[in-house]
Design a protein that fits this description.
The chain is an alpha+beta fold and 336 residues long. The protein has nine helices and 17 strands.
Length: 336
């Protein structure tokens, strides 16, 4: 799955611009599952298993990633931008970015020797930053960049032992696992949804859930691992190397207790998130129609929403095995 994840992390797919990634996924799964694309751009798949499912299970992974969007071009050719999704200004400073058409730029900042004493003590706000594409006039910049164009961090995947360093592991990890599940031979039928616009809270998963109308849902995600220097043990959320993480609660969902207990009892390496933070497509899915019992299975990821996310490939393999067993249990009707 490592090579698949590397390919996925190399394809730009800022929220609302998921087309290239969706086409890649279709090429990967077209011989293994039935599929359609809805009006929002969600890819909805049906996978036949060895047996017919007693309960309809939907497994979701969002396709989009955080990024930047051009909002204004100055007279001297600099590109002002807005962030698409949650990106800390600290991870943008002096970083290379690449636009959809291949134009490369750098997020500009004032040189350190020109900062005032107070400026040195605080990080600049995102709305004070700009992208330098090497243009000297507005007209020159507009030959290659238009307002509304999106950019991602210029970052190539890098092997680090049993870990992978890459942009957009959130949520290409979930996408990689879901593609692999569709290529497998499951015990029971299930539905798979590759959804749009999760990072901006618009939740393509909401409409996908209405289409599928599942009895239960599993969200495949990436989540913050703060098992790093200087973070107190009760705020580490989860750790690399301890398997996928399951959640009992986050800022958008209080998870179904039966599903949580069922998953937590699986004899496959996993961990429980120990800090309540963030949110994901579960927030939309579990409130759809008459309500959908939902659980999230996440890949622990350091430095999430940055150019250099770090995750364990061993955790990724465990995430696949864990999800495969959980889907089979739910489709068999157990716990529902």
């Amino acid at each position: 799955m490592k090579e698949l994840l590397k390919k996925l992390c190399s394809i730009p797919a800022v929220s609302g611009r998921e087309e290239k990634l969706r086409e890649f996924i279709i090429n990967e799964i077209k011989d293994y599952a039935e599929y359609s694309v809805d009006q929002n751009g969600n890819l909805i798949c049906f996978k036949r298993g060895k047996s017919r499912a007693k309960k309809k299970v939907m497994v979701d992974a969002h396709m989009d990633e955080v990024g930047l969007i051009a909002s204004y071009i100055t007279d001297n050719g600099f590109v002002r931008f807005e962030t698409v999704g949650g990106i800390d200004a600290a991870v943008m400073l002096a970083r290379k970015v690449v636009f959809e058409n291949g134009t490369v730029g750098v997020v500009g900042m004032k040189p350190v020797h020109m900062l005032s004493g107070d400026e040195k003590k605080t990080l600049p706000k995102a709305d004070s930053l700009y992208i330098d594409i090497g243009a000297s006039t507005k007209e020159e910049a507009e030959k290659v960049i238009s307002v509304g164009d999106t950019a991602v961090f210029y970052s190539e995947p890098l092997d680090m032992g049993n870990n992978l360093l890459a942009r957009a592991i959130d949520d290409r990890a979930g996408v990689a696992v879901l593609i692999s599940l569709l290529k497998g031979t499951p015990e029971y039928d299930f539905y798979a949804t590759f959804t749009v616009k999760e990072e901006v809270g618009l939740r393509g998963a909401k409409t996908a859930t209405f289409t599928v109308s599942p009895d239960a849902a599993v969200i495949l995600e990436a989540t913050t691992a703060a098992d790093i220097y200087g973070v107190a043990s009760d705020k580490k959320v989860c750790s690399l190397g301890q398997g996928p993480a399951i959640s009992f609660m986050d800022r958008s969902t209080l998870y179904n207790k039966k599903l949580f207990d069922l998953a937590n009892a699986l004899p496959i390496k996993h961990q429980v998130k120990e800090y309540v933070s963030g949110g994901n497509n579960a927030g939309a899915v579990h409130l759809s129609k008459g309500g959908v019992p939902t659980l999230t299975v996440s890949l622990p990821t350091r430095y999430i929403h940055s150019p250099s996310c770090l995750a364990s490939l061993l955790d990724l393999e465990d995430m696949y095995t864990f999800s495969e067993k959980l889907i089979a249990l739910l489709a068999s009707g157990e716990g529902l």
